[in-house]
Amino acid sequence: MANYDAIIIGAGPGGYVAAIRCAQLGLKVACVEGRETLGGTCLNVGCIPSKAMLHASHMLHEAEHNFAKMGLKGKSPSVDFKQMLAYKDETVEGNTKGIEFLFKKNKVDWIKGWATIPAAGQVKVGEEVHNAKNIIVATGSEASSLPGVEIDEKIVISSTGALELPKVPKKMVVIGAGVIGLELGSVYKRLGSDVTVIEYMDVVTPGMDGEVQKTFQRMLKKQGLEFIMGAAVQGVEATKTKAKVTYKLKKDDSETTVDADVVLVATGRRPYVDGLGLEALGVEMTQRGQIKTDDHWATNVKGLYAIGDVIEGPMLAHKAEDEGMACAEVLAGNHGHVNYGVIPGVIYTHPEVASVGATEEQLKEAGRAYKVGKFPFMGNARAKAVFAGDGFVKLLADKDTDRVLGCHIIGPGAGDLIHEICVAMEFGASAQDVALTCHAHPTFSEAVREAALACGDGAIHA
Ligand code: FAD
């Protein structure tokens, strides 16, 4: 038995960041992880491996579609899928080992195994019970499915199975046009699969800015992804080698079946709290199965905190990390804060899609007077030079004060460009502040400045 100031359960981006920050703030800290490696969903089966696959398949796409235009001739590369998975695994390993190194460097004890909380202030792993002044639950989430759809990770797969397939399937059906479905769907499309996405709503990536949704779907269609929208999947019948997906169109209730070699279920994720013993402790939960916390990540049980995917809010690694850092500050007796109004969301397809703050639809609904500054990447010299002129930056600002309220980007480097606006929003900047900031030429970021100019007297290159 050991005594700690803090024990963190789960070593995903929420948990490992909380552990490191607790240690940096002088607390004696341990982090329990049941998986063989650190880094959670994000590093092992989420953000990082999916980005490795997106990168590799994007390189192939560039070689097939753009190399010849630039005078780069020759046979385009063929896919050695086994090697691609090995590259993905190596990328993952480099990152998970990096967290191990950071734990050692910061003197965070890594307790290996699955934790339960037998009583407030206690964490049990195997036969060992450890005492902790405070416990942070950062146990993350797991893929969820639909009624009538059983995931076997071979023919009917979750995102985890999609990162481990033995070969590129000929025909893939993706259920759900959210971020994960579209990212992995576009990976397999580029690798040669026929990909059909079935979505219940009439738009892709529900919740995003409407104009971005339309442009995004159009671009993905151009890349060859097929969409069946407004369709409720009724069930998936799988054999050892094939599957049949039955869906009903909402508009006329007609039922259709499509065949696939592999069905990727990307209908969302649910909080993971199995085996922790939260019910016996009397921990309050939300209706959606998340751990209920106050503004400082405290649950209703004294000394028990929760962060990341297991609580409310967007299921994003950086949201979990921010909560981890802030919660550590609270445990150390300091002030911890997360600005939930400025959490960017990025889709790492090509082109990338990124957004922060309010959408136009939200502003309309709130009855807020706003103005829109929009700039197409077609007017950006750098974007045109790299065949990335499709897409735009859309900046939303308060009509009277000019304060930046939100930004939505579809185009090259969107995932990096958005952070300029995140900083602007944190500082309460106006669109004019962004417009008057000198931006290097030729960069994609000039498109952000032009959108800010368009909120005022007008963009120069549009
Ligand atoms: P997790 O990362 O889920 O970590 C929780 C850890 O707790 C796990 O390792 C688990 O083994 C461990 N654990 C659970 N119970 C116990 C227990 N009882 N004892 C010990 N250990 C336990 N987010 C982004 O921001 N950007 C992206 O590009 C992105 N891409 C994604 C792609 C995919 C395919 C998926 C699936 C997710 C993606 N996400 C992305 C989401 C991101 O992975 C999660 O939001 C993030 O990992 C949540 O972090 P967390 O620390 O809350 O939990």
TrEMBL record:
Q: EC number(s) in its UniProt entry?
A: 1.8.1.4
What domain of life is recorded for the organism?
A: Bacteria
Alphabetical UniProt keywords: Disulfide bond, FAD, Flavoprotein, NAD, Nucleotide-binding, Oxidoreductase, Redox-active center
Q: Looking at the keywords, is Cell wall biogenesis/degradation present?
A: no
How cofactor binds (record note)?
A: Binds 1 FAD per subunit.
GO molecular function (one): dihydrolipoyl dehydrogenase (NADH) activity
GO CC, one annotated term: cytoplasm
Q: Where is the FAD/NAD(P)-binding domain?
A: 4-324
List ligand-binding residues for NAD(+).
176-183, 199, 268
> Which of this chain's residues are annotated to bind FAD?
51, 139-141, 309, 315-318
Which residues are connected by disulfide bridges in this protein? Answer: 42-47
- Catalysed reaction per UniProt? N(6)-[(R)-dihydrolipoyl]-L-lysyl-[protein] + NAD(+) = N(6)-[(R)-lipoyl]-L-lysyl-[protein] + NADH + H(+)
* Entry annotated with the keyword NAD: yes
Swiss-Prot/TrEMBL GO biological process terms: 2-oxoglutarate metabolic process
The top EC class is oxidoreductase
- Active site (UniProt): 441
Which NCBIfam families does the entry link to?
A: lipoamide_DH
Other notes:
The active site is a redox-active disulfide bond.
Q: Which family does it belong to?
A: Belongs to the class-I pyridine nucleotide-disulfide oxidoreductase family.
Q: What is this protein called?
A: Dihydrolipoyl dehydrogenase
